Amino acid sequence: MNAKPVSLFVVVAALFWSCAAGAAPIRVRLIEGNFRGFLVLRALDGAAIAYGEVSQKPTGNLIECRTILRFKDGSLYDESATFSQKGVFRLEGYRLVQHGSSFPTLEVSFDRKSGQYKARSQAEKDGKEKTAGGKFVMPDDLYNGMALMLLKNLPGGAGATVHMAVFTPEPRVIEMEWSWEGEDQVLLGGRAMKTMRSLVKLKIGGLTGVIASLIGKSPPDLRYWLVAGDVPAFVRFEGAMFLNGPVWRLEMTTVEWPR
After folding, report:
1. pLDDT of 78-90, one tens digit each?
2. pTM for this predicted structure
């Protein structure tokens, strides 16, 4: 198989995870339901570059989670993940649309019921767009767009290895290796609160992974922070949202009242 650059688009989702390390579905500890929160995406110097929201709502026996980021330069990131939660979390369908000057174009969708995917992508910004489609068999532990749900359901100190799909534009399934890296503190009204910091390593297997490492194009590490407690709460994501992209910070924010 010929190796080629891998365009990596991560759901923070996507916009934003008890088990030991090992590829297996994540067990449900906290049932998901209705939720809505507001987001700000910042450069590392603190400048806000995009605003948006994350929401969840039940649709029959499934839950739909959607993350939207609207950039100041007109770029758009719109990700949706539909999943079930009967004993374990199971991704049933996924859709991501991102376009604009902030990142390479990507439009991708796939679902478990049809077993099909469609993708349109660029290897890099201003590069040639390529399209693909066809059969796609989703592993039971495939979790595109479900980072926040999975993190909340990993017991403190436990790690996990699951999978996500990247598109070049053909699909490739890679490993996501989750581990808890340490603790930090945030302040709420002057009161210190403990956060748990999660490290996510994305691993490309086989010959492609070896070559990617040699040429310096291995997928970047990602980090998530959650306020600890019986009901963990997301407070920050930090990492690149595409291969060789800048490191950005995604945080929860509040609405502003007009003056």
Report:
1. 999 999 999 999 9
2. 0.85
Using only C-alpha atoms, what is the Rg of the chain?
Answer: 18
Residues in the chain: 259
Q: Give me the mean pLDDT over the 91-96 stretch.
A: 98
CA 102/CA 240 separation, integer angstroms = 12
Contact status, residue 48 vs residue 41, Cβ threshold 8 Å: yes
Within 10 A of 155 (CB to CB), how many other CB atoms are there? 10
Nearest in space to 16 (alpha carbons), one of 243, 255, 224? 224
Q: Can you tell me the distance from the alpha carbon of 229 to that of 155, in angstroms, rounded to the nearest whole number?
A: 10
Domain positions in the chain are 35-253
Measured CA to CA, the distance from residue 171 to residue 117 in angstroms comes to 8
1-33 confidence digits (pLDDT tens):
443 433 444 333 333 322 333 458 999 999 999
- Work out the end-to-end distance of the chain between its first and last CA atoms, rounded to an integer number of angstroms: 60
CA 49 – CA 216 distance, rounded (Å): 27
Give the whole-angstrom CA distance, residue 52 versus residue 224. 18
Choose among 194, 145, 205: nearest CA to 172: 205
